């Protein structure tokens, strides 16, 4: 009579279950990595937009403050670089924001565009609003900064 030896190893069913558990764990890890990469990209876009808005606001504040041309005394030459003249009477009311792509744009260059609005209702205090509005990886996003500039 032969002695039965113990069988060792994995059955096919045990192997399938083990591979399924490993596949589910790998799917969860990959999903987490993709989500974190999307979040990182969104935060990068937001940071670039905040920097662009702040930079543009500081640039606006560096211009001279002068009354709008219609309120200047007769004979006074308007300053072309004053806040009002430079940003409302010329084509400087928008600016490109490099580093952010806007998927809404139909042009080949999909660089996001920021806008500048100056409320000169009170000619002695301007309300300046700089906005960057774009559609990024996670959908629409807007960064706005307002400031008052007084003469």
Keywords summarizing the entry:
151 residues, four-stranded antiparallel β-sheet, 38% helix, alpha+beta, 4 strands, 29% strand
Question: Would you write up a description of this structure?
Answer:
This protein is α+β, with helices and mostly antiparallel strands and 151 residues long. The protein has helices at residues 12-62, 83-88, and strands at 94-101, 111-122, 125-136, 139-150. It is rod-shaped, with a radius of gyration of 30 Å. It is built from two helices and four strands. The N and C termini lie far apart (110 Å). It has one domain (12-150).
Summary of the model, kept short:
By secondary structure, the chain is of the alpha+beta class. Helix content is 38%, strand content 29%.
Summarize the topology.
Elements: H1 12-62, H2 83-88, E1 94-101, E2 111-122, E3 125-136, E4 139-150
Antiparallel strand pairs: 1-2, 2-3, 3-4
């Amino acid at each position: 009579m032969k002695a039965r030896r113990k069988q060792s190893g994995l059955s096919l069913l045990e192997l399938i279950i083990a591979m399924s558990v490993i596949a589910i764990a790998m799917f969860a890890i990959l999903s987490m990595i993709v989500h974190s990469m999307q979040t990182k990209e969104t935060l990068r876009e937001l940071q670039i937009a905040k920097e662009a808005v702040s930079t543009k606001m500081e640039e606006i504040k560096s211009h001279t403050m002068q009354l709008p041309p219609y309120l200047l005394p007769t004979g006074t030459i308007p300053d072309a670089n004053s806040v009002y003249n430079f940003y409302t009477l010329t084509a400087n009311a928008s600016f490109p924001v490099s580093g952010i792509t806007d998927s809404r744009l139909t042009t080949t260059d999909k660089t996001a565009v920021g806008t500048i609005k100056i409320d000169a209702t009170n000619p002695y205090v301007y309300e300046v609003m700089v906005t960057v509005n774009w559609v990024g990886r996670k959908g629409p996003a807007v960064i706005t900064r307002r400031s008052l500039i007084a003469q």
